[in-house]
Design a protein that fits this description.
alpha/beta, Alkaline Phosphatase, subunit A, 2 domains, seven-stranded mixed β-sheet, four-stranded antiparallel β-sheet, 30% helix, globular
Length: 393
């Protein structure tokens, strides 16, 4: 609906994290991940002879962070190119790609806060708790897999699969649902994470795929900003540990891939749009905002669509771009091929994509608001572009 916004879009036809997983699946003789072709940057035959394929996902490691002055080193030395994330560029949507081999078009997860029509509730999807608080779905006696209907990639790969992830989420309802038959291993810190992977490589006697996930850079960037000294130190620790890790598994016929679910940008406090300051917009909505601070799904009263569009156009168009959700679905922003039938219920009637470094928030009555400096989920190149690192050892 807005013509001047120039988004950085996913390249599902051969340049995204989905295509990376298609290359991995094809290399090990798994099911083709149609309609997603293998990654142009990494044909499957380049992985076909490795006994160990290791994928390390560094949450929040955008390409521009890796290329920032002073961030050279072990990771940068093995950089082979760039990938796009998916739409939206956020953990719930993008990390699920590595677990399923599917884009949001098929796996149906569209952001941190999602409206599930099946249960009439907005959930924070990764912990599977209602936005208003309370116990998890599992604690309420519901089977999360029945709601999510996951298709774990590990169940479709004809080799031993492992997942190495923080101990606090390794047995979560979400993780158990999406990891499938992969063998789960929890860790408490970065050294333990890479030691676990090293042990699996050295002790393994058959071909295996090892997926490791490290979330600390993401958490640090949210709290302090991706350009902060704290994030720089976090990256330095990762880079040094990665160099020691490669030395430790040398000679074990392994390919190590490192990438990320999304990148980051920093948003100053004065670039926050609070819905409470725009009652004329808030009164057009049927539900609280869903999605992310950088990309919001809006559920609008049918008779108020004109008012909604007019308000955004008159008061907020310099800070956010307005789209009809169905237009983005039809344009293939969420992926290729037939969508999950539930996807249309999870993207609202309209999408607000924040421009530049702006964010958008609302609050439930009594809800505690978290202050974030580093943000993601939007359509900037900083959020959408991630590195692909490859080391053969």
């Amino acid at each position: 609906m807005t013509q001047t916004f120039q988004p950085s879009l996913p390249d599902y036809r051969g340049g995204s994290i989905v295509n990376l997983m298609a290359s991995v699946a094809s290399a090990v003789g798994g099911d083709a991940l149609a309609p997603y072709p293998p990654l142009g940057l990494l044909p499957p035959e380049e992985l076909a002879d490795a006994r160990n394929i290791i994928l390390l996902v560094v949450d929040g490691l955008g390409l521009d962070t890796l290329l920032r002055p002073g961030n050279g080193g072990n990771l940068h030395r093995h950089l082979i190119g760039k990938l796009t994330s998916v739409f939206p560029s956020t953990t719930a949507s993008a990390n699920t790609v590595f677990l399923t081999g599917q884009a949001p078009q098929q796996h149906g997860l569209t952001g941190w806060h999602m409206f599930f029509r099946e249960i009439g509730s907005i959930l924070a999807v990764l912990p599977l708790v209602p936005r208003h608080g309370g116990p998890t779905l599992g604690q309420c006696g519901m089977n999360p897999a029945g709601l999510l209907r996951p298709h774990p990639l590990a169940d479709r790969l004809p080799l031993v699969c492992h997942q190495v992830t923080p101990a606090y989420i390794v047995d979560s309802d979400f993780n158990r649902a999406y990891v499938g038959t992969a063998r789960r291993h929890g860790y408490k810190n970065l050294a333990q994470c890479l030691n676990l992977v090293s042990d699996l490589v050295r002790q393994g006697r058959e071909r295996q795929f090892i997926h490791a996930y490290w979330p600390t850079l993401d958490a640090t960037a949210h709290d302090h900003g991706i350009k902060s000294r704290e994030s720089a130190l976090c990256f330095e620790r990762l880079d040094a540990a990665f160099g020691r890790f490669l030395e430790g598994i040398a000679g074990h016929d392994s390919v190590v891939l490192v990438t990320a679910d999304h990148g980051f940008l920093d948003s100053p406090p004065d670039h926050l749009v609070d819905l409470k300051d725009h009652p004329g917009l808030a009164e057009t909505l049927m539900l609280p905002l869903c999605g992310e601070r950088r990309l919001a799904y809006c559920y609008v009263h049918p008779e108020r669509c004109g008012d909604f569009e007019a308000y955004v156009g008159e008061h907020l168009s310099e800070r956010m771009a307005l789209y009809r959700s169905r237009d983005l679905l039809e344009a293939g922003w969420f992926g290729l091929g037939p969508p999950d039938p539930r996807l249309k219920d999870r993207i609202g009637h309209y999408v607000l994509a924040l421009r530049d470094d702006w964010t958008l928030v609302d609050s439930l009555p009594g809800e505690k608001r978290h202050s974030l400096i580093g943000v993601h989920g939007g359509l900037s190149a900083a959020e959408m572009t991630v590195p692909l690192i490859l080391a053969r050892v």
